[in-house]
Amino acid sequence: MNPLRTLALAAAPTAMLIGLSAAPAMAADDPAPNPPATVSISPAKQQVKTWHWMGNYGSVNDVANAANGFGAGAGEFVTQNINGLWATFMYY
User: Fold this and answer.
1) Which of 4, 23, 51, 89 ranks highest by number of CB atoms within 10 Å?
2) Does the predicted TM-score (pTM) go above 0.85?
3) What is the pLDDT of residue 23?
């Protein structure tokens, strides 16, 4: 057997022992990483928006007042003139 191979085999267990004892020391030197922060807007589940029947209005002014009173955004208030009445749906 080659004498250099014998030295390599003898040094391997020593290197493993040094590596095992140095690993906890190196880990203790590093600061612990900060866990990612989670942001919760509200503890309750958010309600899913759906379309709701708001009724028939007699004039366009009544429909506009209802939309402005609710604070409906773009596309959240739909109306159609059917036989003189304004059929209206709201998305909330």
Assistant:
1) 89
2) no
3) 53
List phi, psi (to 5°) of 56.
-105, 130
In a domain, 83, yes or no: yes
Same domain (yes/no): 55, 87? yes
Q: Print the domain residue range for 1.
A: 1-31
Nearest to 91 by CA among 61, 48, 62, 58: 48
Q: How many domains is the chain built from? A: 2
Tell which residue, 70, 48, 22, has the closest CA to residue 88. Answer: 70
Whole-number percent of the chain with pLDDT over 70: 52
Is residue 38 scored above 60 in pLDDT?
yes
CB atoms within 10 A of CB 33: 6
CA angle at 66 for the pair 60 and 67, rounded to the nearest 5°: 90
Mean pLDDT of the residues in the chain: 74
